[in-house]
TrEMBL record:
Source organism of the structure: Microvirga tunisiensis
Keyword Cytoplasm attached: no
Essential cofactor(s): FAD
Keyword Ribosomal protein in record: no
UniProt-recorded name of the protein: UbiH/UbiF family hydroxylase
GO terms for biological process, alphabetical: ubiquinone biosynthetic process
Highest taxon in the source lineage: Bacteria
């Protein structure tokens, strides 16, 4: 690298970090992306909701991403808890709210690869494939120390370095963490029957069992269950695991075959007391961690990036630098309520499945029954889930020119 001074430095080359670097470079900021790519397959996928699709369209990468993703046109919820108040299956179709799909499902590694291709092709983005080892801020901006001894200066540092964020720790931003008595088994499956672009979520007493379509007769699975059961499932050979999955899915997609790597993910959460410190903004899992329920984690990370981009652009119009306290306070205001609401929703859903209390089962069953039978209510809930009307960053509104 011949130039070590930038407007914005993004630390972390996962999907969130890559998207942040592309977004700021797109707007003309001198941007550097720091960190090495991790493209190991781990059996995990992400369902990109409508706002994330619009965001990727604005970055110019959506056609490449869509080529290896599958649309989610229908969502089904089946109560398999054994509750006395078991409602009939509930179905939601994207066409009811004027969309072709609620979102698109893609393997995590494929998404990172497509974003990395765009980053390498960007003439206005510098790539520094070293790991950040230190961070400091002063009146002149921020400094990032790299593993090879180089130092990078930037007006704003974006910490996209994951749940164990080194930059967050150095900045002294405190966290709250929690865990659940569950783990999630993740795996890619092939199956005999068509999924017809429908995801199916079985609510069991130990957590959701969710099948989400991939291109072809393939689906991804997130099976949330007790820690002991998850450990047992993870030790099964491919044939035995495929049979266990087929039985839990009530043969919904016919015979199953393991068609990719497996993952075993402890169920946990993390939140921060603030999203920024001097010349530093947290995005993605550096700011919040969700259990793999409800497709919230990465979609919220993309919203972080789009909201930070808006705060930087608007702050610049008001005469503030990208890393100023005024700009980052604006970012905090834009993210705090959204993340808190989504955290509460995911946590609440998971805990209602675990309680086994009759009043809780009744309320959950009544809620699903109402969504199934009251069209206007169902459409309001669907729109809020994928097309929220308040506080949506501009790049997620389909406004690619601002």
């Amino acid at each position: 690298m011949t130039e070590n001074i930038y407007d914005i430095a993004v630390v972390g080359a996962g999907a969130v970090g890559l998207s942040a670097a592309l977004a700021f470079a797109r707007d003309g900021y001198r941007t550097v992306l720091i960190g090495g790519l991790d493209v190991r397959r781990d059996g995990r996928t992400v369902a990109l909701l409508n706002g994330s699709v619009r965001f990727l369209e604005a970055l110019g990468v959506w056609p490449a991403v869509a080529s290896v993703a599958a649309p989610l046109e229908t969502m089904r919820i089946i109560d398999d808890t054994g509750s006395l108040f078991r409602p009939p299956p509930a179905g939601f179709r994207a066409g009811e709210i004027g969309l072709d799909a609620f979102g698109w499902n893609i393997e995590n590694v494929a998404l990172v690869e497509k974003l990395a291709e765009a980053a390498r092709a960007s003439e206005s983005l510098t790539l520094a494939p070293e790991f950040a080892t230190g961070f400091a801020a002063d009146d002149a901006g921020a400094s990032i120390m790299l593993a090879d001894g180089a130092v990078i200066r930037a007006g704003l540092v974006v910490a996209a370095d994951g749940r164990n964020s080194r930059l967050r720790q150095i900045a002294g931003i405190s966290t709250q963490t929690w865990s659940y008595p569950q783990s999630a088994v993740t795996v890619i499956l092939a199956h005999d029957r068509e999924h017809w672009e429908a995801s199916t979520e079985f609510h069991t007493r130990h957590g959701p069992f969710t099948l989400v379509p991939l291109p072809g007769r393939r689906s991804s699975l997130v099976w949330v269950t007790s820690k002991d059961d998850a450990e047992r499932l993870s030790t099964l050979d491919d044939a035995a695991l495929a049979l266990a999955i087929e039985r839990q899915a009530q043969s919904h997609l016919g015979a199953m075959r393991i068609d990719g790597p497996r993952g075993l993910v402890p169920m946990s959460g993390l939140s921060v007391n603030r999203y920024w410190s001097r010349n530093l903004a947290l995005v993605g899992e550096a700011a919040h961690v969700f259990p793999p329920i409800g497709a919230q984690g990465l979609n919220l990370g993309f919203r972080d990036v789009a909201a930070l981009r808006d705060a930087v652009v608007d702050g610049g119009d008001a005469g503030h630098s990208p890393g100023s306290d005024e700009t980052l306070t604006r970012y905090q205001r834009g993210r705090d309520l959204d993340v808190r609401l989504r955290t509460a929703a995911v946590d609440g859903l998971n805990r209602t499945l675990l309680t086994g209390m009759i009043p809780t089962d009744f309320l959950r069953g009544a809620g699903l029954l109402a969504l199934s039978n009251i069209g206007p209510l169902r459409r309001i809930v669907m729109r809020e889930g994928v097309l929220p009307r308040v506080g949506v960053p501009r790049l997620m509104q389909g406004v690619s020119s601002v």
